[in-house]
Amino acid sequence: MDSKSSPAGRARGELVRRGQAGYTIRLRLPHAGSSVSFFNRLMAQTRDTLREQVQRTLRNRLFVVVSNREPYIHIYRDRKIQMLRPASGLTIALDPVMRAVGGLWVAHGAGEADPEVTDDRGRVQVPPEKPAYTLKRVWLTKEQEEGYYYGLANGAFWPLCHNAFRRPVFRQSDWERYREVNGLFAQAVAEEVGDQKAFIFIQDYHWGLLPRMLKERCPRAKVAHFWHIPWPHPEVFRICPWRIDILKGMLGNDMLCFHIRHHGLNFMDTVERELEARTDRETNAIIYRGHATKIRNFPISVDFEAIQEEAASREVARKMKEFRQQFRLPPRNVGVGVDRADYTKGIPDRLRAIDRFLELHPEYIGDFAFVQVAVPSRVRVEEYRKLNEEIDTLIEEINWKYRSGSWKPIVPVREHLGRTELFALYRLARFSLVTSLQDGMNLVAKEFVAANLDEKGVLVLSEFTGAARELTQALIVNPYSADQTAEAIHRALTMDDKQVRARMHRLREIVRERNIYKWASDILRKLRRLG
Ligand code: ADQ
């Protein structure tokens, strides 16, 4: 393997004397700074090291994950049962961890064929091709789903925590459904855990009341909760009519986790303002009625090695060729955006930035394409329906403004894509635009980096994503400014290849090292310390 075919290049070992400690090996690699990065690679967490660690950490404890969304969903297609994997950052990130860990995942059974494949307690072994853990489905009525999920979680908490200038809707009936569903899940988990020793790992903002309920029902369980979205400033959170109940519920946790420190600090400030609790800034803990909740940050990530491997496959190469023809892509100036169609992702802002870029740089007209993949989500919420209309209208307007012959600048893809398609697009693109107005982390940014084997891509990244704290070699922009993003697009297209490669190389080292297994392993290590 030469330095071109191997991302690391060829390594040369060198013995270095280290005082009393004896000798250590320092590896010298062709790329600047890569002796450190090669070491990082050797030390990187993998599924196997995580599995070993899990066995040590969990010993005879049951590991339980709770989330709204299930990692596998069964539906009917052509009268046959088919299994799908939903497009959700959270389930995509946690599934490889659960495959390594085993245990139990409790989630809402949302697929019409879900009941067909489960036992009488709602359980099924997954993934079907190689069962590794148990998925327990909880059944909800339409009213419960409407109130708890669409109403309170996505109509109230999502806009409240993202602070993206959408007014949260607080309906009493939604709150009642939320309480009811949190209770149902507490019961479902308790049914399996009882008074066994267990680690229960709750996911997200659908479960503000669940931690306390679980602590009461499962006395020997340690409870941790990952809040995957931002936590806002206390002044913002203050408008929530049920803020006290939510905070008390969340302080049932032994550990409460965010992606970045800033969100944890906001949470501590909120508790200080709203409750008579003691916050300890030294140890980052909150003591409420004698119980301590540790506040920690763990930036979530992706399965770097798996993405890299799949992105290098023949199927992906074939798909790249196919897309080039199908979308009539130019040889070089191709951009990509991949999102759930959500107003926090800044899709209209991004489209306006492309408009501005073409206004400022008309020389690219006819020799540029931006593929925007925006899969509709939460369409039962009014705001999301409006957003889909806005996206379609903007694309139509911009394409109309610049079209010449059969050429148009924006290629819309409004459907869920498989991994082969996604990775083909990531690899085709000279640049990727991640322009969230606010985002807990944003996994698309990290996927783009992991799939970028050739190190020929530039990541343009919003400063309001959690990812921007780690991926500092991206071109960081304020997505509210169309001019700033337009300028970054221009820079991405004109940057010399050496610099593109150096930046992407560094980004790849970061995501490789801070991968999803490291995320899980760091959390497990902290859980273990809870006793
Ligand atoms: P999301 O906002 O859902 O989750 P995000 O981090 O943006 O998550 O990831 C979205 C995932 O869905 C990515 O894996 C992406 O590849 C996939 N996806 C998007 N569109 C797709 C399409 N059209 N077809 C196929 N797959 C698609 C929340 C928070 C984030 C946080 C995650 C994880 O809002 O800030 O990063 O949880 O904690």
Structure, explained:
The chain has 531 residues and is an alpha/beta fold. Helix content is 44%, strand content 20%. It has helices at residues 34-43, 47-58, 89-101, 142-162, 172-193, 210-217, 234-237, 243-250, 261-274, 304-311, 314-326, 347-360, 382-402, 419-428, 443-451, 482-494, 497-513, 516-529, and strands at 12-17, 23-28, 62-66, 73-77, 80-84, 104-108, 123-126, 133-138, 198-203, 221-226, 255-258, 278-280, 285-288, 291-297, 334-341, 369-376, 410-413, 431-434, 458-462, 475-477. α1 packs parallel to α17. It is globular, with a radius of gyration of 24 Å. Adenosine-5'-diphosphate-glucose binds at residues 87-90, 92-93, 228-229, 300, 338-340, 373, 375, 416-417, 422, 439-444, 447.
- The number of helical segments is 18
The CA-CA distance between the termini, in Å, is 47 Å
Work out the count of structural domains. 3
Low-confidence stretches: 1-36
CATH class of the largest domain: Alpha Beta
The total count of strands amounts to 20
User: What general outline do the C-alpha atoms trace?
Assistant: globular
Estimate percent helicity: 40-55%
Q: Tell me what the CATH architecture of the largest domain is.
A: 3-Layer(aba) Sandwich
The fraction of residues in strands falls at 15-25%
**Mind describing the biggest β-sheet?**
10 strands, mixed
Quick description:
The protein is an alpha/beta fold.
List the helices and strands and how they pair.
Layout: E1 12-17, E2 23-28, H1 34-43, H2 47-58, E3 62-66, E4 73-77, E5 80-84, H3 89-101, E6 104-108, E7 123-126, E8 133-138, H4 142-162, H5 172-193, E9 198-203, H6 210-217, E10 221-226, H7 234-237, H8 243-250, E11 255-258, H9 261-274, E12 278-280, E13 285-288, E14 291-297, H10 304-311, H11 314-326, E15 334-341, H12 347-360, E16 369-376, H13 382-402, E17 410-413, H14 419-428, E18 431-434, H15 443-451, E19 458-462, E20 475-477, H16 482-494, H17 497-513, H18 516-529
Parallel strand pairs: 3-6, 3-9, 6-8, 9-10, 10-11, 11-14, 15-16, 15-18, 16-17, 18-19, 19-20
Antiparallel strand pairs: 1-2, 4-5, 7-8, 12-13, 13-14
The structure holds adenosine-5'-diphosphate-glucose (ADQ).
